[in-house]
Write a sequence for this structure.
């Protein structure tokens, strides 16, 4: 097609510009965008940081920016492309493409994030079964001396691969920083009818549980019915159930800790 036709189709959305000089007929996935960079560079692009985490399935940070290792040819970083110098980073093939290894990727990401999100990333890579705590500690030693590595090393004491969402990880760190006893994660309780329930956090000695309620998963009528039945069944067994939402964790952490501590201390 002519340049004028191409420009018109881009304006109308019939053709999508992926990178300068590379176009697609459908919205490109992350794999497609990396393949387009292969075309531009003439090299097989290696994913890292957030992009590698997304390919492995443990990405916790949103954003369209593609992160790649320097391919060795001139490739200028732009708004949606970040080029990194990571000589010696271990690589693994995922979805037909090389990316920095899971443990390396998780530690690198955690170094660059705030403590709550760093813990969420470390939890997520373990939850996916992509590496072990031993792998993470070995990688921390390999990245010794780099910015943020001390923070990551300190967080390893609290890493738990049973956390099923980033916000559960953030909430757990609020409990830890607030001085609460360490909760049991994904704790199982059998009610009087013999039904098994699993709760996000539990302090069994105090008969207190806390459940994170996301708007995405708990806003449907079916989810609301399930949650109400769960709370009622746990209360019948003597458990105090404390709901928490994102604002409790991020905007009012001290109030959240005080609410839980009041019930834990009362039971004690």
């Amino acid at each position: 097609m002519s340049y004028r036709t191409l420009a018109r189709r881009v304006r109308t959305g019939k053709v999508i510009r992926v990178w300068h000089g590379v176009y697609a007929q459908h919205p490109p996935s992350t794999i497609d965008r990396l393949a387009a960079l292969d075309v531009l560079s003439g090299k097989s692009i290696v994913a890292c940081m957030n992009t590698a985490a997304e390919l492995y399935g443990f990405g916790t940070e949103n954003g369209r920016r593609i992160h790649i290792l320097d391919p060795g040819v001139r490739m200028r970083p732009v708004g949606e492309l970040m080029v990194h110098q990571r000589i010696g980073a271990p690589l693994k093939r995922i979805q037909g493409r090389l990316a920095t290894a899971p443990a390396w990727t998780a530690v690198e990401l955690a170094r660059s994030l705030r403590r709550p999100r760093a813990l969420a990333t470390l939890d997520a890579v373990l939850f996916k079964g992509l590496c072990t705590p031993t792998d993470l500690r070995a990688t921390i030693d390999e990245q010794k001396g780099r910015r943020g590595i001390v923070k990551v090393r300190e967080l390893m004491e609290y890493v738990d691969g049973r956390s099923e969402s980033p916000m559960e990880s953030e909430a757990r760190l609020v409990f830890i920083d607030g001085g609460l006893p360490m909760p049991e994660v994904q704790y199982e309780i059998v009610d009087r009818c013999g039904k098994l329930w699993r709760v996000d956090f539990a302090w069994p000695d105090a008969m207190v549980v806390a459940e994170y309620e996301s708007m995405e998963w708990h806003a449907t009528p079916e989810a609301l019915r399930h949650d109400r039945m769960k709370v009622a069944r746990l209360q019948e067994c003597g458990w105090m159930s404390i709901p928490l939402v994102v604002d409790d964790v991020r905007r009012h952490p001290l109030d959240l800790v005080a609410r839980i501590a009041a019930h834990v201390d009362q039971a004690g």
Observations:
- Strands lie at 16-19, 22-24, 66-69, 81-84, 91-94, 97-100, 184-190, 196-203, 208-212, 240-244.
